[in-house]
Amino acid sequence: MRLVPWTSDDLGRRMNDVLAVFGEAMSYHPQALAVRRGYITTHLQRPHFRAIASLSDQGQLLGFAYGYHSEPGQWWHDQVSSVLDPDARQRWLTDCFEVVELHVRPAAQGHGLGEAQLRALLAMTGAATTLLSTPEADEQASRAWRLYRRTGFLDVSRHLLFPGDPRPFAVLGRPLPMTH
Ligand SMILES: CC(C)(COP(=O)(O)OP(=O)(O)OC[C@H]1O[C@@H](n2cnc3c(N)ncnc32)[C@H](O)[C@@H]1OP(=O)(O)O)[C@@H](O)C(=O)NCCC(=O)NCCS
């Protein structure tokens, strides 16, 4: 297994594999994945796009993560900005790298790949903070939540509802760089 930094072109070339990992990890229906293809294609053009892939020795995609600089005018940035008070907005969103997607194929989960991807991705940005959103869940029972807490992510906003999604989300963040 190896972690490989990807350019936006690299990710675009492996889009079908990315969607397959995404679909497996999130148990998404093919129709939902078709919508994701459109989103991800848009994200490839975003400022300071960074991505990392976990590849098996045979080149199979085991997991991936990507993000970009979070800026006004981006849908997610504006949603999060609207629920923060001015101090929190200043602290978290002034120079922020958004972790947009982080997924590991179920068969490869539980061996530290997700954490390695997250750390490698965050080492590729010079931003002052990072933010992500994740569905609300039992922190002890959710592998994603355990990972975020273990790596120092703090509550920025909880039980947030994004338009078009009935699930409540938490916005979590941490200052960068990660030194431990
Ligand atoms: C969330 C997700 C990316 C985490 O990836 P992962 O590889 O499964 O998880 P981690 O890197 O945290 O694996 C660590 C687990 O392996 C164990 N582990 C074994 N060897 C390890 C090593 N060398 N280093 C670190 N952890 C190791 C850890 O103890 C940890 O156990 P735990 O999950 O019971 O706490 C992945 O589970 C996933 O894709 N889930 C579905 C999609 C999802 O929820 N994505 C995030 C949405 S916001």
TrEMBL record:
UniProt protein name: GNAT family N-acetyltransferase
Xref: SUPFAM superfamilies: Acyl-CoA N-acyltransferases (Nat)
Protein species of origin: Catellatospora aurea
InterPro entries assigned: Acyl_CoA_acyltransferase (IPR016181), GNAT_dom (IPR000182)
Transmembrane regions listed in the UniProt entry: none
Annotated GO MF terms: acyltransferase activity
The EC number(s) this enzyme carries: 2.3.1.-
Domain N-acetyltransferase: start-end pairs: 1-177
Main enzyme class: transferase
Swiss-Prot/TrEMBL keywords: Acyltransferase, Transferase
